[in-house]
Design goal:
By secondary structure, the protein is of the alpha/beta class. It is built from twelve helices and eight strands. The chain has helices spanning 16-29, 44-54, 80-86, 96-102, 106-118, 131-135, 139-150, 156-160, 180-198, 200-205, 219-223, 240-252; strands spanning 5-9, 37-41, 59-63, 90-93, 122-127, 163-166, 207-211, 230-233. Strand 3 (59-63), helix 3 (80-86) and strand 4 form a beta-alpha-beta unit. Helix 1 packs parallel to helix 2 (44-54), helix 5 crosses helix 7 (139-150) and helix 7 (139-150) packs parallel to helix 9 (180-198). The structure holds 2-phosphoglycolic acid (PGA). 2-phosphoglycolic acid (PGA) is lined by residues 9, 167, 172-173, 211-214, 232-236.
Length: 255
């Protein structure tokens, strides 16, 4: 059975100090929650300090991106081994902002994914269509392409360990979340493809979470769908109470 997976994507928000203050307060709020996998993704500069602050708690830490090489002349880049050493156990890969603003493609997503798995980081791989693609009726074809190319060469066992985040680009930071029907349709499709391409155990174990304008007041209607295993939360994860409410309500939805 998949427990809900709720991740905070802080994007380029929070200093080291702010991240540590957040986690110190948050870890005591969630200390009795053992049935939700909870992750925060600070900016690179705060990964180590936040991981230290979260040590021996139920809160895991993620990087927001990773380079596929182990080391080398790649100014500004961070490797999977470096993230792991800094205390991260997860990494977000292929977020639509990385695809749109920093040149990520399905091919680089695949390389990053392989590197992350090689360093025992759990990848949170983002996929999702733009508004234009949705309006052209291409949503499912875009998801197929992103899954096929992004997860290329992975074994069923590796896919089972992944978190796939379906984030319709038009729903990110816009206040317009996908309706439960839209999210359910996409998630059902993703799960079917995983089953078809990587086998039933992979499809049954892989967490497929939703992202895009998730808030305390809409998390319930989103995760109530059996194929939606949690959420990747941007804006609403910056405030400790709102993020806690999302975690708490994701649980209620599964009981
Ligand atoms: P949002 O961002 O919750 O602010 O829409 C989600 C994301 O980009 O992961």
């Amino acid at each position: 059975m998949r427990v809900p997976f709720i991740a905070a994507n802080w994007k380029m928000f929070k200093t080291v100090h702010e991240g540590v203050v957040f986690v110190k307060e948050f870890r005591s709020m969630v200390k009795d929650i053992s049935d939700v996998e909870i992750v925060v993704a600070p900016p690179f500069t705060a990964v180590h300090a936040v991981a230290e602050a979260a040590r021996n708690s139920v809160v895991g830490v993620a990087g927001q991106d990773v380079h596929w090489e182990r080391e080398g002349a790649f100014t500004g880049a961070i490797s999977a081994g470096m993230l792991r050493e800094a205390g991260a156990e997860y990494v977000i890969i292929g977020h639509s902002e990385r695809r749109r603003l920093f040149g990520d493609t399905d091919e680089t997503v695949n390389r990053k994914l392989v590197a992350a798995l090689g360093s025992r980081l759990t990848p949170i791989v983002c996929i999702g269509e733009t508004l234009e693609e949705r309006e052209r009726g291409e949503t499912l074809a875009v998801l197929d392409r992103q899954i096929k190319a992004g997860l290329d060469s992975l074994t069923g066992e590796q896919v089972a360990s992944l978190v796939l985040a379906y984030e319709p680009v038009w729903a990110i930071g816009t206040g317009r979340n996908a309706t439960p029907l839209e999210a359910g349709e996409a998630h059902g499709h993703i799960r079917n493809r995983l089953r078809q391409w990587f086998g039933a155990p992979a499809a049954d174990h892989c967490h497929v979470i939703y992202g895009g304008s998730v808030k305390p007041d809409n998390i319930h209607e989103i995760v109530v769908h059996p194929d939606v295993d949690g959420a990747l939360v941007g804006g609403a994860s910056l405030e400790v109470r709102a993020f806690f409410d999302i975690v708490a309500r994701s649980r209620q939805s599964t009981v």
